[in-house]
Amino acid sequence: MNIGLLGLLFGSAATAQQQSTSLLDSVHDAVSQRFLDFANDLDGLFGGSDLSIDANSSWFRLRTDGVRFEGDDFEARANVKMRLVLPSAEKRLRLLISTEDEDNLDPDQSRTRSTINNDENNVSFALRFLQSVRDSDALKFDIGARVRDGEGQAFARVNASRELYRNIDSGLAVTLTNNLWLFSASGFENRLRLGIRQTLPWFSKAFALSRTEVVWQNGEGGADLSEWVGLFYQLNDEALLAFESITDIASSPPQDSRDHVRAFEVRLRYRDSVWREWFFYEIWPRVRWEAEDDFRTRYGLQLRAEIFVGR
């Protein structure tokens, strides 16, 4: 009698869990379908052709981060990014809505000098026009509006990128990218970036990335330099392990500081998909040294969750 009752309870729990999982998948599938339907309807305004929904590679991402360093309060932040690709316009026109900055080297730059990502409740809306100049060159033009320096501003951006070198045998690729923003109130900001990717022959699933970025801003003396280096290892189809370092340098530090190096950070990063292929989580143990804290060692932890909708 007791064994039968126990089996009944376990069976009921398993059935409830299966129903809950099925409901979750159904909700995600329905949201994805409606999102791609919306993307195709919007695409019709520009192109007018009747394309299959499978041809649309639009996507929507919800990202939640929680960060805490020694001596600081826990900070939680949710970001949304939506990219609508319009196949009828030969994929040369995209609609972008974001509360994050895809060109930021460090997702947590709140303690460094002003960057685009520092504004609270940062929201960006833009139309993007893409043009391939050559196989190795590309141009992107953005026209839109965003919150910056505490106020809503119109902006235009020109993104030019060129592949300087690629060798398939050695696994080395070098890319140069320049982003120029013009804001209606804050003036200009220019970011020049050199990116290097190198596969590691002794590890078939490992590769190294580095990005050197120089930033000039309107009204700022000198330039800011950021150096990011990462070693990545693909554990399986979904899981990735990385070791990263970030160095933040000011060519013209404030008068009350003689430190050109403002901050240095190292961190481990583990990313994996769990439960469903559209849900990811990341764990980042972090160690940071900052000039404003006399380069005192500070330990931190960042947790991230991402949900993808669409393609």
Topology:
Blueprint: H1 2-46, E1 59-69, E2 75-85, E3 93-98, E4 124-132, E5 137-148, E6 151-167, E7 172-183, E8 187-199, E9 206-217, E10 224-234, E11 240-250, E12 261-273, E13 279-290, E14 298-310
Antiparallel strand pairs: 1-2, 1-14, 2-3, 3-4, 4-5, 5-6, 6-7, 7-8, 8-9, 9-10, 10-11, 11-12, 12-13, 13-14
Structural notes for this entry:
The protein is mainly β. It contains one helix and 14 strands; from the N terminus they run H-E-E-E-E-E-E-E-E-E-E-E-E-E-E. The radius of gyration is 23 Å and the shape is globular. The protein starts with a helix and ends with a strand.
Short description:
The protein is mainly β. It has one helix spanning 2-46; strands at 59-69, 75-85, 93-98, 124-132, 137-148, 151-167, 172-183, 187-199, 206-217, 224-234, 240-250, 261-273, 279-290, 298-310. The radius of gyration is 23 Å and the shape is globular.
Largest sheet: 14 strands, antiparallel, barrel
Number of strands: 14
Radius of gyration: 23 Å
Question: Percent of residues in beta strands?
Answer: over 45%
H/E series: HEEEEEEEEEEEEEE
Which quaternary structure do these chains form? single chain
Mean pLDDT: 79
Q: Helix/strand/pairing class, anyone?
A: mainly beta
Which regions are unreliable across 5 or more consecutive residues at pLDDT < 50? 42-54, 103-121
| Order of the strands making up the biggest sheet | 1-2-3-4-5-6-7-8-9-10-11-12-13-14
**Distance between termini?**
51 Å
Key descriptive features of the protein:
14-stranded antiparallel β-barrel; 14% helix; 1 helix; mainly beta; 311 residues
